[in-house]
């Protein structure tokens, strides 16, 4: 087995790097090989299990993306689109299954990668019932928004060609493999390619992520930036934002990725093997917001209560 994880970059990795260096270490280095329960030490196995913890908001976000994927694939395969009541009922059923799985901690410990354990239940958080109520309301809102989106209006046209649905891919930037996964990519009748990002929460700035997607699409599909449309669909409130990237935008985004890569590589003792420096180098950055939902609070003595 590889002693250290393979080096790569993603927007989610950059987000965690900004949030807390200790969490970044646990997630990307400390947990590596923790699935090898017969070979790894106890702490590595423990960190790997904690890395697999989910939470209600993550489960909800995943269910919404699966709902959108199911509806889009039905359209792509010429089938009737799933009815709204069916989508809502299915999401509630899967949310309940996640809750029930989380009640069996021993089964989760045996197979943490393939079973769900909600961090709210694992840590006995008092926010559990309140969050369940919030998620149930959001399910209804998101399901009812899907078929009213600008994206679905495009998909209803016969001239729209679906190119990618929830597909992982990579591109090279600064000699680094960069991972991208677009929720939906399609070509409109006018030849423009539309990148769609489904969001289930409040409106935020996702421009860095979208610009990386635009760079990938330009390179992979050999189209000029003028033919690439970036769109965020906020399903919770039924709104959207649309962007048009310029060459200057992409240059700034790629430069920013380069700075992240440089900073991340400053945390490794050996770039060839991606061997990290000592854990003490990864300074904890405690805050009430970050520590409240951190998967690794069980092992971190620096957490804020």
Short description:
The chain is built from twelve helices and seven strands. It has 305 residues and is of the alpha+beta class. Helix 4 packs antiparallel against helix 5, helix 5 (84-101) packs antiparallel against helix 8 (128-146) and helix 10 (207-221) crosses helix 11 (247-265).
Protein described:
There is one protein chain. The chain has 305 residues and is of the alpha+beta class. It folds into 2 domains: 11-146 and 283-292, no CATH class; 150-261, Lambda Exonuclease, Chain A, CATH 3.90.320.10. It has helices spanning 11-19, 21-30, 42-51, 56-76, 84-101, 105-110, 119-122, 128-146, 150-155, 207-221, 247-265, 288-292, and strands at 161-173, 176-187, 193-199, 228-234, 239-243, 268-270, 275-276. Strands 1-2-3-4-5 form a 5-stranded mixed beta sheet. Helix 4 packs parallel to helix 8 and helix 5 (84-101) runs antiparallel to helix 8 (128-146). The longest helix has 21 residues, at 56-76. The mean pLDDT is 95.
Map the helices and strands.
Blueprint (H helix, E strand, L loop, with lengths): L10 H9 L1 H10 L11 H10 L4 H21 L7 H18 L3 H6 L8 H4 L5 H19 L3 H6 L5 E13 L2 E12 L5 E7 L7 H15 L6 E7 L4 E5 L3 H19 L2 E3 L4 E2 L11 H5 L13
Parallel strand pairs: 3-4
Antiparallel strand pairs: 1-2, 2-3, 4-5, 6-7
């Amino acid at each position: 087995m590889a002693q250290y994880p393979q080096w790569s970059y993603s927007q989610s990795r950059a987000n965690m790097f900004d949030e807390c260096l200790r969490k970044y270490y646990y997630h990307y280095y400390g947990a590596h090989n923790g699935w090898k329960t017969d070979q790894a030490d106890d702490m590595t196995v423990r960190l790997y299990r904690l890395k697999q913890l989910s939470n209600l908001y993550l489960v909800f976000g995943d269910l919404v993306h699966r709902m959108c994927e199911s509806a889009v694939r039905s359209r792509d395969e010429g089938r009737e689109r799933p009815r709204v009541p069916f989508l809502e009922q299915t999401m509630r059923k899967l949310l309940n299954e996640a809750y029930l799985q989380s009640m069996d901690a021993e089964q989760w410990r045996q197979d943490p990668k393939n079973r769900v354990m909600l961090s709210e239940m694992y840590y006995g958080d008092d926010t559990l019932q309140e969050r369940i109520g919030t998620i149930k309301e959001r399910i209804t809102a998101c399901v009812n928004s899907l078929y009213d989106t600008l994206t679905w209006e495009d998909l209803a046209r016969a001239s729209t060609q679906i190119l990618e649905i929830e597909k992982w891919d990579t591109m090279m930037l600064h000699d680094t493999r960069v991972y991208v996964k677009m929720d939906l990519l399609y070509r409109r009748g006018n030849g423009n390619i539309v990148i769609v990002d489904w969001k289930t929460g409040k409106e935020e700035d996702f421009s860095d992520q979208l610009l990386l997607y635009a760079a990938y699409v330009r390179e992979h599909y050999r189209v000029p930036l003028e033919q690439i449309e970036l769109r965020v669909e906020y399903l919770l409130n039924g709104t959207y934002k649309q962007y048009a990237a310029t060459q200057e935008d992409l240059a700034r985004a790629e430069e920013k990725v380069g700075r992240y890569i440089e900073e991340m590589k400053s945390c490794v003792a050996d770039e060839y093997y991606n061997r990290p420096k000592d854990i003490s180098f990864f300074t904890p950055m405690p805050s009430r917001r970050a520590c409240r939902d951190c998967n690794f609070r069980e092992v971190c003595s620096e957490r804020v209560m």
